[in-house]
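so i finally got all the pieces together for this one. its four components total, 438 residues if u count the protein bits. some of the lines might not be protein, just check the labels. i wanna see the whole assembly predicted at once instead of chain by chain like last time, that was a mess tbh
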Amino acid sequence: MSEDNYSLGSRVYRTIRDDILEGKYHSGDELKEKNIGDELGVSRTPVREALRQLELEGLVSIVPNKGAFVIGVSLQDIQDIYEIRALLEGLCAKWAAINISDEQITEMDENLVLSEFHESKGNYEQLVSLDNRFHEIMYEASGSKELKRVLKDYHEYVLRVRKNSLGAAGRAKNSTAEHRKIAEAIKAHDALRAEECARTHIKSTKENMDKMGWENLMN
Amino acid sequence: MSEDNYSLGSRVYRTIRDDILEGKYHSGDELKEKNIGDELGVSRTPVREALRQLELEGLVSIVPNKGAFVIGVSLQDIQDIYEIRALLEGLCAKWAAINISDEQITEMDENLVLSEFHESKGNYEQLVSLDNRFHEIMYEASGSKELKRVLKDYHEYVLRVRKNSLGAAGRAKNSTAEHRKIAEAIKAHDALRAEECARTHIKSTKENMDKMGWENLMN
DNA sequence: TCTTGAATAATTGTATACAATTATACTTGT
DNA sequence: ACAAGTATAATTGTATACAATTATTCAAGA
């Protein structure tokens, strides 16, 4: 039945985090414990836990005795993250080429077929979701807890611009094609080629965003 | 006066975190809210906040309604982190070569002089502290919030093996010499050379640990 | 002896109470 | 009208109360 049995604290954390990453909150906004608690129907305790976690992540700044203020992910942060990801997704693909399981290869193949299908139909919403999953499979396949954690976070931090980027004509097709190249290299256990393809994929994503204009992607 | 005016939650967080990173707690250890609170003289509330933060970091695993269990940083994690750091410290040095300020250059120079002094005296405790600071200056000089955050965390995560490594004869001298090379490249604003030197520095640190035997470094 | 199950204790999850701090509104004097 | 100072309200920080869940103990029966 997959009963969602998360604690209130986790639910509050995810809600606020999503709102920040989706751009619902803006940098400098104050997050008052009572307001959020009332909106979500919980007391201040789980809200505080969530805010403390968001502070650790750098998405929120807590000023003692004053309050919690949204930091969010700035344009500069996102550009930096793409440079970091270019290196780390490369490393991840390299390790995935060595460690990937047959089941993970199968899931990647299915992901690619679906991506190509939805790409041809112009279903951008599904493409974003499939893009999420493609990268997650690769993170998982790398076999590295730390690499998975940092890449998963960064992938989520750039969600907003990724959505806008994939929605633009042309980019989705290129992105899916690049995914296939990465997958082929990983399936062939060609670590160096996988690394290069993954690095190139992130670089070309960023270059596409340069062309589209970052201001348009941040709306 | 620098009055340490942190909240209890922050203090508890740092205490538990240090204990985990120093190896005082071991993987699987249960962290009971009441015990920790009693030891530190605080109630459960700030302890819970700390545990939730540590969970986000991956240092602790929280099983709903059961408790918090230490995860820590495994040998495999540390080896992965060195590969990740090799890439990211390279990127960091590259950016530092572009963005470093005169004040930061001065602080780096002072750091190197002190390092060479304490290295010749065999003061390994000071060397660990100076090594911490050298890297922090570079993180700061990169001008990248995200890069700084991830590298700072990772540098702390490998504290235990770094201490043991620097304590061994020979390595401290090499490490300081490598720091100087990185600093020279950064000061010359030679981004590519800085990147290469920093990458090599981390690689050679890891190779040294390979030679020393990781088991000995994890005690 | 081993298992089972109920009673009890311990622990976590959440809400609330209260103290400390900060922000706001109001009053008073110039 | 404006400033300063004070009372009031709002907000955060921490502790505690209580409910829900899990762990432990112990007795009874096979």
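Chain B has two domains: 8-70, 75-217.
Chain B touches chain A through 30 residues (CB under 8 Å).
anyway lmk what u think
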